[in-house]
Write a structure and sequence with these properties.
Layout (H helix, E strand, L loop, with lengths): L17 H15 L11 H8 L3 H13 L3 E3 L5 E3 L2 H21 L4 H15 L1
Antiparallel strand pairs: 1-2
Helix pairs in contact: 1-3, 2-3
């Protein structure tokens, strides 16, 4: 794994939780192509040792990435980066579910976009 983790280490003195720092680092590397689709991520324990963090920190980051369809855990075959098409399909499905919920609740498109924008900003 050429660009990951490299010299990068999570900062214990940051107000951002360690798992979130790791999650954001992986997202950045996936978006920049440093972790291409199909790339296998290090095993949880191996990466925890390398980064000098608890294994549950890495496991939580991987779990969050899997929930966002950025990676997929394949049992004994490890955790791999998913192709963008798979990620976009997952987001498209979530967007369709949100649009349906907003529409059936009587929320206008403008209000639904405003709510989504506010939620998106809250996640940053």
């Amino acid at each position: 794994m050429s660009a990951f983790p490299g010299s990068w280490r999570p900062r214990a003195d940051s107000s951002v939780p360690l798992f979130e720092q790791l999650r954001l680092r992986i997202v950045h590397l996936v978006d920049d192509g440093g972790l291409p689709p199909g790339q296998r991520l290090p095993a949880v324990r191996a990466l925890a040792t390398e980064l000098d963090v608890a294994p549950h920190t890495v496991a939580r980051a991987y779990k969050e990435l899997e929930a966002a369809s950025i990676v997929e855990t394949r049992g004994r075959n490890g955790t791999v980066v998913l192709p963008r098409d798979d990620r976009q399909k997952s987001l498209g499905d979530a967007a369709s579910a949100y649009a349906e919920a907003a529409r059936t609740s009587g929320v206008s498109l403008a209000e639904a976009v405003r709510l989504l924008t506010a939620a998106y900003r809250d996640q940053a």
